[in-house]
């Protein structure tokens, strides 16, 4: 009697996408393509002065022209400034501000997490209790309070958000370091006479990099929305400097008639947040496939 052969297991190098199995190469190329959107947005932000057809601060046409009229792709605002130029410059400010805050959070939080995870004991307890104190407070509310104390301004907004953003990375790095500290190769390095700082820099810190990179990439979208929300509340760039959240807030009175004036900056915020989240997922998948 013939014995039915079991169904072959799904290839391990395949990834599920919407109920289907994608070959490993196709999934990898898809992830690289999506992750590459970060580079595309960064390039657009760098080239904003070249790509913008007009000066974003000066009126260049009739006020309130609809998209496509008078040669203005996204129309003009209430005083005749090119909306496309303002969106490009606002995208530049929001994108680099998000990257700057994340870089600061990774550096500060990474150092604190590395020190706490490496030394343990009372050092770990003290640093993590400080971190928990920051995490216990609602980050947006704390950022608003800091900006209110320092005064409105884009630099103050970045400083306020940076102050409340590092604890997440401290927790992540500390957890990764504590897990790595019990690995055999770290114990072998200690037995071979490696000092604490050498072990931390050569054996513990590199192991925390993948989780930190994935978290940072997923954080881009959240941070852009946070910065846009603070600017929307009037805590960002002062007028007439172009900034996506501030431009959407200042032009809300046009929403029902000249909808494109406040909507285009909002759409740009949405696109940046989506790119950040999708690219973060792609980078996570690429890290898992290694």
How does this model look, in words?
By secondary structure, the protein is an all-alpha fold. The protein has one domain: MetI-like (MetI-like fold, Orthogonal Bundle). Helix content is 70%, strand content 2%. The protein is built from ten helices and two strands; from the N terminus they run E-E-H-H-H-H-H-H-H-H-H-H. Strands 1-2 form a two-stranded antiparallel ribbon. Strand 1 and strand 2 form a beta hairpin. It is elongated. The relative contact order is 0.14. The N terminus is likely disordered. One of its GO terms (cellular component) is plasma membrane.
By CATH, the superfamily comes out as MetI-like
Number of strands: 2
The helical percent reads 55-70%
CATH topology: MetI-like fold
Order of helices and strands: EEHHHHHHHHHH
Rounded to the nearest angstrom, the radius of gyration is 24 Å
What's the overall geometry?
elongated
| Structural class based on helices, strands and sheet pairing | mainly alpha
Put simply, the count of helices is: 10
Q: In percent, how much strand structure appears in the residues?
A: under 5%
The poorly predicted ranges are: 1-21
What does the main sheet amount to? 2 strands, antiparallel
The CATH class, by name, is: Mainly Alpha
Number of domains: 1
Main-sheet strand order equals 1-2
Distance between the termini: 44 Å
- The CATH level-2 architecture is identified as Orthogonal Bundle
Average pLDDT value?
83
Quaternary structure state of the chains depicted: single chain
